[in-house]
Amino acid sequence: MTRPVVTVAERRPTRQIHIGKVAVGGGAPISVQSMTTTKTADVEGTLSQIYALAAAGADIVRCTCNEPEAAEGLAQIVPRSPVPIVADIHFHHEMALAALEAGVQGLRLNPGNLRKESEIKLVASEARDRGVPIRIGVNAGSLHPEIAKRHGGATPEALVESARRELELFAEVDFFDVKISVKASSVPLMIAAYRLASETFDHPLHLGVTEAGPPPAGLIKATAGIATLLAEGIGDTIRYSLTADPVEEARAGRQLLEAMGLRERKGLDLIACPSCGRAEIDVIGVAAAAQRALEERQIPLQVAVMGCVVNGPGEAREADLGIAAGRHKGHLFIKGKIVRVVPEDQMVEALVAEAERLVAEGVEARLAAAEAGAAEEAEADRRALLEVKGQDANRSGERIARIRELVAEEAGPASAAEGRSQ
């Protein structure tokens, strides 16, 4: 007798939005999100963490945009990120506008912090014109005082009303590309709020228990809330909010989805850069060929395919193995260390061969077998490419100049109004 397949409840139907190339809602696979803990202005440090998050299973990464320097950092981060970037906005609408200028693929607004209707509608209008979705990120700890007073505090009804009011403002400017979260640090409150939200809205829902705390208690708390809702068919994207390395958040999210049968387990984990202005090859084509070859051999590694040797080995140094292009060559690296340089037309073949050796012999043995002079050749290629394309191959400087103009323009009226009120 065949046993029936046991599954969680059928997922609640929602609209579908796209954060970059990642579909959210509308039957798309549930995505995993996390947030960087670096200063966004620290471009290299933030990118390193983004790559580590992508390798751990994050589909989307959020970065804070709380100051002009952060927006300028995003202008340099977005074209080099392997996953879509969402800018986290709190009190200043001009930071949302600057983040859009930086090219982010999504925004998160907190209705309890950004309250001026004219500013909210301005941001929504700009996002609409650029095709950038917004998450209405309601938080029990920062509700609008008026809503909190009317409901006697942070209740499920108060959280949902906050989201509904923001949606109404968006609708006034014909903006509907939205996902919603109604987070709380109390698990019972969070569960009740999301259940009500799922009955009230047809927009995708982003699940999370805010300020869950450090592991193991934080893991238990977050899992209790997120897993309960997922089992009921509620939720389209998730984030564990832990007081820990954010890589632990991404890893926990991925493992939860796999445990519940909502994402497939995979042996190979391949990440690739987004083919920015420095790319020396067809990154998408090489990555697809490498993935097919490695999956056929069931290689259980994290493998990176990077378009350029200038930044690739450093950005993807958390990967077990990777290859970066440059000057018609492929630069093989293990844990960020160059071990071999091969002709460009042999990149996939060399990557697969090294992967098989790495599985059979281990990291230390393969690092010890690195070809003499490979690291020096890669460094020479890196310097030559910098001379040809310069430090700003993605023309981020142009976006940064526009960001500075925008911030100055938006700050001007505010400063004038502030002066008149004194």
UniProtKB/TrEMBL annotation:
Matches recorded under Pfam families: GcpE (PF04551), GcpE_C (PF26540)
Coiled-coil parts of chain: none
Domain IspG TIM-barrel: 14-253
Transmembrane segments: none
Keyword terms: 4Fe-4S, Iron, Iron-sulfur, Isoprene biosynthesis, Metal-binding, Oxidoreductase
Nucleus among keywords: no
Gene3D superfamilies according to UniProt: Dihydropteroate synthase-like, Sulfite Reductase Hemoprotein, domain 1
Reported cofactor(s): [4Fe-4S] cluster
Residues noted as binding [4Fe-4S] cluster in the record, renumbered to the chain: 273, 276, 308, 315
EC number: 1.17.7.3
Domain of life: Bacteria
Domain IspG C-terminal: 270-356
Catalytic reaction list: (2E)-4-hydroxy-3-methylbut-2-enyl diphosphate + oxidized [flavodoxin] + H2O + 2 H(+) = 2-C-methyl-D-erythritol 2,4-cyclic diphosphate + reduced [flavodoxin]
Enzyme class: oxidoreductase
GO molecular-function term, one example from the UniProt record: 4-hydroxy-3-methylbut-2-en-1-yl diphosphate synthase activity (ferredoxin)
Cofactor note: Binds 1 [4Fe-4S] cluster.
Record has Protein transport as a keyword: no
Pathway membership, UniProt: Isoprenoid biosynthesis; isopentenyl diphosphate biosynthesis via DXP pathway; isopentenyl diphosphate from 1-deoxy-D-xylulose 5-phosphate: step 5/6
HAMAP family: IspG (MF_00159)
Family affiliation: Belongs to the IspG family.
PANTHER family in alphabetical order: 4-HYDROXY-3-METHYLBUT-2-EN-1-YL DIPHOSPHATE SYNTHASE, 4-HYDROXY-3-METHYLBUT-2-EN-1-YL DIPHOSPHATE SYNTHASE (FERREDOXIN), CHLOROPLASTIC
Function: Converts 2C-methyl-D-erythritol 2,4-cyclodiphosphate (ME-2,4cPP) into 1-hydroxy-2-methyl-2-(E)-butenyl 4-diphosphate.
Protein known as: 4-hydroxy-3-methylbut-2-en-1-yl diphosphate synthase (flavodoxin)
Source organism per UniProt: Aciditerrimonas ferrireducens
